[in-house]
Structures are given as structure tokens and as C-alpha cells.
Amino acid sequence: MDQRTARRTAGLSPASAQSPVPADKLLHSGNSGFTIARSAQLKYEHRDEGRKLFASVIAYMNQSDLNGASFYFYEEAFGKQDRVHWLIHWKTPNDYAISLHMVDHDEKMIDLLESDRVVDDASAGVWGRAVVEGSVQERILVPQHGLVHEEDDHDPGELWVDPAKLQTGRPDGELLHSANAMLTLHRTGQATHEFRKEARLYAFAWQNEVNRKLPGRATSYLYEETFGVMDRLHWLVHLKDFDAYQQLLELERTDKDFRALGERQFIADQKGGGTWGRTYVPGTIEDTLLLPHQLTAAE
Questions:
Q1: How confident is the model at residue 269 (pLDDT cuts 50, 70, 90)?
Q2: Within 13 Å of residue 177, how many CA atoms lie on the same side as its CB?
């Protein structure tokens, strides 16, 4: 995909614009081994200061080369006003320690986080004033593995596990991901413990249809939530533009293969039988649509 063409067509910049690293060197949702999905609610009165702070922090982290880690900043669309999101991609969990050391000891980072940028208030830096207390959440996403290929067939190299792009069977030039997509749909769902394997099989079948039907328009990857809630699954569905988002919705409503997928028996007769609907806890499948934060001249 030509990123310059994508930017011109959509009128927006992808998250790769937040990093000085060349596109072929960037870590992203398709080629990383470990991802942190972080979100926070900004206080309405300090929404502008909060965005400026986080844009500055992201820029500094990306230029610091933390063993190749990439930091991307997003706005939430069609959801809560002023709730912001990050996708932080690493090679392994050990790399996270590098960022902790930086936050504790790097003078510029300490200045960014603690300097007083919000006026007419006291006793806290911009971090404490801009963000609603208790609203910062982190989920650790690890590419789902073991269902689409034999793990021994691939050497993850520096990565903790095989990267998510191996789930697709598509060439790299056709793949969308967190760095080059104009929109990212973050879907979560809680698999039932009884049918945890069947839930994963459905998740793969669903995203295979997306990747097959919308090549170059949408790319879906599946992840486990690690060190969090057992059997909570995450999809990152990367979209070229808003038209691709509409195409995805239309597929789920009208495509015959998607309808057949909804009627397929994923649970064996000896376990009582049933479609995918029995494999997820009702009411737990949620979608959040993310837009890359658009940098301004001041940022």
C-alpha cells in the first residue's frame, strides 16, 4: 500500500505519521510479539492540554528507539467523548522494562510528565490534572497462536510469539495494520470457559472471511488477553477508510458466506451442539472504533 496515496484519499494521516521510523522498520499489530492496549479518559476542561501532552510523550518515545518499540495514539470515534487510546507494540515483554527505566530516569521524559502545563490549578502536573482518576486501563494482547499453523514451522526470532500477520496467509504488501490503517476496529469478546476452543475457531473463521473478502480494504488479527481476564479475546480489524468500515458492516449483514458462518455448528454433538452463539458470554462482544490522532504544527 502506498501510504502517501492513502493519506491523500482519506484526508487523514495514519498512525505511522507519529513516528520518525521508516515504514519498513516499524513494529505494528501485524509484526510485533506483544502489544499493550491502553486507554484513558481526559477531563473535559483539560482535553486540549491532555492531547498535547500525550502527543509529545508518544513522539519522544518513538524517537528514543526502545528496542524498536512503536507507540501509536488514537481518538475514540462513536464512543465516549475525550477517551483516548494507545497501541504500544513490543518484541517481547522484557522490552517493557526499558520504558519503565526511561520514565523513572530520563530527564526529558520526567519533565514531560511532571512539568506544570495546566494553569490556575495547584499541586499536580499536567498528567494529574488532565486525566480522570482511575480511568487509565491497560490490556496485554498477544497474537493468538496454535490454531492456524504448527508453531514449529515458524521461528519467531526476536519476537515472543509468532506475529499476527501469519494468521492471514496474505502477502505483506496487502496487509493493513496499526501503522498504516486509517481506522482500527478493536473488538473484544468473552469466550465461555466450556467452549473456549470453539470460540477461538469461530473467531478465526470470522476473520478469515474478512481477510478473504476485503483484501487491501480490511485486515483482521486475533489476540489473547494475557495477564488479564482468561478467555477474553481481542480482534484488531484495520480498515483503509470509512467506506471499508461500511463494507465490513454490509458483509456481516448480507454476505452469504457470513450468514452460513452464523449457522455453522461449532460445538460437537457430544457437547450438546450449537452455533458460535453458545461459545461467547452474551453481551460481552464490544466494538471500539479508533482514529489515529492527527498531529498539529504545535505538536
A1: very high
A2: 28
